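Hi again,

Forgot to attach this to my earlier email, sorry! This is the prediction with adenosine-5'-diphosphate bound. I've pasted everything inline since the attachment limit keeps bouncing my files.
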Amino acid sequence: MIQLRNVTKKYGDTTIYSNVNYEFKDASLTCFLGPSGSGKSTLFNLLAGFDSDFTGEIVVGTTNIKDLSPDELPSYRLNSIGFIFQEYHLLDGYTALENVLLAVYSAKNAGAKEYVQKAQKLLVELGLEPQIHQKVQTLSGGQKQRVAIARSLINDPAIILADEPTGALDQESALSIMKILKKISTTKTVLMITHDEELATFGDEIIEIEDEQLIVKKASISQKTVNTTTKSDSLQLQSNDFFRIGFKNFKIHLIKYVIAAILIACGSASFLGTVGSKEIMNHSISEFKEKNAYFNKGMIPKYDQGIEVNKDLALTYERLSSMKQVQNVYYQYDLKNISLTMKDVTINNEVKMPTAPSTVSMVYGNMPQDNKKEMVISPSLASKFEKQIQKLVGERMALSYVNKMGKKVTIELTIAGITDTQYDDFIVSASVEKDMYKNTTINNATSISFDVKGFNEIPKVQKLLIDKQVAVYTNYKQVENFNQAFTSLIKLFTFVSYFVLAVALFISTIMLYKISIERYKEIGLLSALGFKRKHIKSILFKESLLFSGLSTIISLIVVHILNLLYKAQFNYGLGLNLYSYCLLIAMNMFVSIVISFIINQKLVKTETISAIRK
Ligand code: ADP
Ligand code: MG
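Structure tokens for the complex follow:
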């Protein structure tokens, strides 16, 4: 029994129905005719409880729809109403059987098997036996509408509301659908909207909407009644049902989800790259230091080009020795009776003054390495042994000098490079030099050599000494330039990373938003089928979880690949540790859950009618 009592429905100032009183005949087919826009769908939306914005009463069986809470309405729909739409509203990606079962989704429930059998039986009865396991998007219009009819019948509702069910079908399919509905109407109350006057003649009763009223064009004489008492809520979804539906949806939208996940992954990986860039800088510096042990060498001469620049070397020596940033402090003196021999050429030098390494640049090769027996020589000196001076790099040279005890010492050294010094000169490895100047005292010292411990301490030591009016040679300028270049690089790198992150987040948000827009109808449908808001929320949340898991896994892979690329390119990776992986996982989880939560929040609030109407 469906009764309208003083029903008035308005959209703003537009009245669609005014004070309508009517009782529909049970167990009969009532057809609604009327021009487009006359309010046929509006009436069905009121009857289905999609729209509660009206005055008066709609009584179905013993229930006044007005009295139902938003949480009771889905149960009412589920138990009493089977809705058939003009556009079928089936879920693509699901099979015919799954679409039918969606209306009673709960395989864990006691009646699960029964429902599956019932769904199969309905589909067979509707002539869809071969299509039972076919994905619905591959069915013809007539087949789709029959799946929709099966879905409306699965829960055995007392009332079938069919809003232009034949509107999208050809004449033949439309006729077959009419016959099906006619047959159903022997046991159920079937209300149907149509534009086709010929099809309307199937109706036991024909109603037209005119002047905000229902006008009976053909009256039914049916006296049968259909029991419409509300059954218990049979849609009792369990947590793993949500997961199953969520997973299914996730699979259906997988490609889009994967693209969105890859974008988020690239964004967070590039962000992680920024965190790792400090590591890269440290690596570069230590690599540089390893190759340029001489870089840390400083020198304090007594004379510079004949002028006395440091009066009190002893005091400076003491000061240096007490500085915590400085090590390996020793006196140097002018070596006497030097001779250099290569093959059959020997060059004699009367005296060799200590050279400040920081004043020298390389033309060929490298500075001598700390613990190797190496030397570098100036071009003028090199040309005395070989015209093409670069050929000397890698050759061996014998160096003789007279040590402090007056004893002649000869050592074999490898030429590591050619300097840019303008006069005959050479520099030997730090370890070799330390040996040469062993036991030198202040009495014959002409300069002091020292090492600065940390690369970044060099400018500081330089400043400390200059402040004490000590004339000193260090590589502080190069360190400053080096740091400046690195700082700019890291800034650039950080900027690019944040930019990539922002773009990736933006695009993936749009992707997810697109997925969500396409699902607007789907969510509306679930709600029309009797899913409560909390059910839908739970399904979407499961999907978000899956998405965030996917994005996390992909980002771990992306970071791993990035790390390998870095290793191949620079010989060291991103400096990843447990902390960076935790950061990556946390970031991904957070970003993907927040984005999908915000988007889904909108989706959950979808109004059933507006979703179905689109
Ligand atoms: P039909 O008989 O074609 O199914 P409807 O019931 O869909 O007609 O619509 C009846 C009238 O109400 C139309 O003029 C339509 O534009 C208007 N209408 C429908 N839904 C809304 C709404 N949500 N807000 C305002 N007007 C609406
Ligand atoms: Mg309509």
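Residues 242 and 538 are 6 Å apart (CA to CA). The chain has 18 helices and 22 strands.

That should be everything now.

G.
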